[in-house]
Amino acid sequence: MPPTRVALVERVALALHRLGVAPAPFPGPFFDAYLAPMAARAITVAGTSGVFDALPDTTEGVAQRTGLSTQGAEVLLPALETLGYVRFRRGRWSLTRQARRWVGPAGAMPVFSGAFAASAWDLMSDLEAHLRGAAPAALHDRPPGDPWWASYEPAMAEIGRVNGDRVAKLIPAERPRRLLDLAGGPGLYAAAMVRRHPGLEATVVELEAAARHAETHPGVRYLEGDLFEVDPGSGYDVVTAHSILHNLSEERCVALLRRARGALRDGGTFAALETEQPEPGHPRSMIAALGSLTFHAAFGTRSKTGAELEEMLRTAGFSDVRLLRPLDLNGSVLAVGTR
């Protein structure tokens, strides 16, 4: 049996075991605690070292082009093959179709799976200390010149390109003319709204450090400053605040939501996309649960449950509060309210 097929059989068998319909191919903790970190690190190193960009090539060619030792390439490439990222044909390695889609030179998420994942690895190496009460890393407090921003903002742009149009489609807005996007990062969610609603003008509020890495999009302008200090004006038809509430305490969330409501016109719509903290006994998504661990280490916070999001929006004065859980945004919830 070809090696890639053997690896696929292992992964399918493990998935079936997790569903309770087949015996485990090997003990679950052996994969979760021992093999999974190796797999993650192999993919990350392949991204940061340029292996994905170097393909197609021979083992020796990859080593020469990336600065890896020959033996380093000899052990990394087969590992990537078992994970479904590369394949070996006629003496040369090349990316699989899925890998080209996500991590190749023209892929959708090369930074997220490379440099940004590497920084997340460093963050989570101190997880136990953070879980025992150590101060969070406070990543968003880093100065504008900190190299962390150079991987973080492009990674957020990659997520925005993947999810932006899906989210824009979900936001209930009829012929909006003005949009305010709080903590809008590189502006991809705002740009998606502009594409969906011709004539819409969007204002993205972001920290100076993040705004330095902002992208230029038609109909989108940037306002640099702290979310709690800058005055973006009022009378907006739609205000959004995607993936920011999990960085804040509940008190600060309500304060930000009140500012968002104050920026809306009467009848205007507020929407916030968030990962949803699972209720005990009701795990909705591994993405959301593990993401919450990251937020705890980075900011000393966690994702909010659906009930918490609803309550915070109501406390801030929003009416017609509701939650949308689209299947194609697994682990996420779109909290919507009306002024």
From TrEMBL:
Q: Name the CDD domains on file.
A: AdoMet_MTases (cd02440)
Classification via Pfam families: Methyltransf_2
> Which is an annotated GO molecular function term of this record?
O-methyltransferase activity
| Signal sequence range | none
GO terms, biological process: methylation
Name the InterPro entries for this protein.
Answer: COMT-like, COMT_C, SAM-dependent_MTases_sf, WH-like_DNA-bd_sf, WH_DNA-bd_sf
Q: Which UniProt keywords apply?
A: Methyltransferase, S-adenosyl-L-methionine, Transferase
Highest taxon in the source lineage: Bacteria
Annotated O-methyltransferase C-terminal domain ranges read 151-319
**PANTHER family per UniProt:** O-METHYLTRANSFERASE CICE, PUTATIVE (AFU_ORTHOLOGUE AFUA_4G14580)-RELATED
Protein name per its UniProtKB record: O-methyltransferase C-terminal domain-containing protein
